[in-house]
Amino acid sequence: MPAAVGEPVIEMSGLSKHFRLSSGLFSSNKQVVRAVDDVSLTINRGEIVGLVGESGSGKTTLARVILGLTPPSASTVYVDGIDVAHPAAKDRDRLHREVAVVFQDPPGNLNPRQTALGSIARPLRLHGASRSQAYQRVRDVMASIRMDERYLQSYPHQLSGGQCQRIAIARALALEPKIMILDEPTSALDISVQAQILNLLLDLQESLSLTYLIITHDLNVVRYVSDRMAVMYLGRLMEFGPTRDVLQKPRHPYTQGLLAALPVMNPKDRARDKPVIPGDPGSLIQLPTGCRYHPRCPRATERCKSETPPLAVIARNHTAACIYPLD
Description:
alpha/beta; four-stranded antiparallel beta sheet; 12 strands; globular
């Protein structure tokens, strides 16, 4: 973990990303998918933020907007002071160097026709490095991920899942980024390999002063690595705060429900007053009025059905979007 956290490096205020769907080529009946809706979030330099939520909550869409792969529908994202949606020509190359991404499914995200050497060296060559410069940098990042150089001549199908993920991390590190977005970086790995990759990421973050946004379904991963955590549901931010505070004393019923769904070794250890979330998240097209969580919330009232709660400060550095936050 970083000893100290610096100034904001990723900033968004009221960020939205909506997709318009049409039922046919000449149809005027267009539906809107509100994948990300009015999200305000700040990530400081040198910290690790975990982003959690059920499938369809908007986590990956939010990451794509931060990466500049998807333009926002409203507001924008600033990364190190640069408007990601409209970067100046001189800033575009800096963004590509400073922000890196590591996806889930390691073998599927490496070119099957390229060796590990080719995969890691490609971004360097695209940014103008000579062959010798690229090779030296590849050797440096292989040392940083603690992987023998003999694997550089291997193709993805010749490597294990953990080895492929290390190569993907090395590729992300090649351009010496300041920020890394990790989308389910351990979900496709065996449990022992997950621990190795998480420990590697923590060591890299500390030694290279990196900033991480880790997207995951696994609350135990967030518990282990992150300084702060954000909880999303149906495109909105439900809760945000220091990881320990959110996990020990969740203020939003949705966060409490996610924690109640964690598997336990002894069923008797599960708190009876914390029921698992009923039903499914619903549709991003036909969203409920008021609080988006109210159809599944055991504490919902008529007010929750008509009033959309803002993300408000509940405790020091801890916010939640709930009309009746938990004590």
